[in-house]
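Contributing: when you submit paired examples, paste them exactly as shown. First protein:
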Amino acid sequence: MQAHTIGVNEINSHEDKASVVIQNNTDFNSCCFQPEDSGLKLEDFEQYRITESTNIKLPVTVIALNGESISTEGSITTFSGASKSGKSACTGFIIAGAISKDGNIVDKLEGLDVAPNIEHKAVIHIDTEQARHKHQYNIKSILKRAGLTTCPDYFLSYNIRQLDINEYAPITTGICEAASAKFGSKYEISF
């Protein structure tokens, strides 16, 4: 193995910004901290290694776009974008498919496939942007698209816009834990 040598020629610091100029042909070992031998061997990490022959069970795809998996069972799916970029509309199509009886919905987006949620696993939707009245309007559109008139008990949609951002994590964790206790697992979570 050929050793690459680098070195620090100068370090400049200005207003919490540092820059390092590397000089060629300087011994790497002479300029860098060398940790003590911990006694660890690569074999100690073999359980975490992935190779072309590692046996990995593929997760169940629940949302696919043009045949490519974008979400799997139990995953958290997040749509982010600028205001009015269509996040709620996209989420609505997916939720409609997840709560419908067979995954088929009215007004389907071309290329979007949502696997039917035949075991009625929790479908959790948490909105942090919409006003409550707009959120409810979106829920009614989702139900109509799914061919339903009322929310199934496993469809859990919450509006936490009024909360301080520091409250999001404990609230969403609580919702997910309670849903898991009631329904055994989660089909989809979208924000």
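Second protein:
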Amino acid sequence: MAAGPLDLGASTEEGLNPAARGFAVAMKFQAHPNSLFARLLRSPWWVSAALAAVLFAMTRLLLSRFDQPGLYAFFVSLPFAVIACWVGAKQLRAPSAAKLAARLEALRALDWPAFALEVEETYRRDGYEVVRLPGPDADFEVAKGGRRALLACKRWKANRIGVEPLKALVAETAARDAHDCAWLAAGELSEAARAYAAQKGVRLIEGTGLALALPAR
């Protein structure tokens, strides 16, 4: 979600505040993951910068017989130069791998009450209404902008998660008529669980993504 761990706005990705990187629901426009711009946003900044330079040089050469070829070349290469600046700034602000690993270990070391409090406070700071759920299949319901999502995170320490807990989360989401659901885990999911999550639209906040979603205060 763009303005917090979940973007439950009615009308969603790495980017934004640390919790937003963890979970972005598809209610906001996103480029196709295989489009050129989406690939550039996932690449090092210098890839976009190099592409901008090549486009500038080629456009200026091809339009050299016209007036002000440099101006045309500037506007052709400008979108890629902007992407290079944006990605570069984002990468500079990103925490190091060592810091993410340390944060993940700190989260693993928490007991359930402390970890639940981390989750709850993170969402509240980002403007969500948070309700703890008593059932075994989902631990929190978070709401913002008229949309609701369920979070399952009680098994965050498990090294390997199978498909059955995700099926239970999906069923609970449907039973409560919520819009989205997410699974938070410090460990890994099995291939079957990952495939099921992709099929059912379960958002996975796992590994270093969990450290990004729940930054140290």
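If you have annotations for the second protein, write them as plain sentences, like these:
Residues 114 and 183 are 18 Å apart (CA to CA).
The chain has a mean pLDDT of 83.
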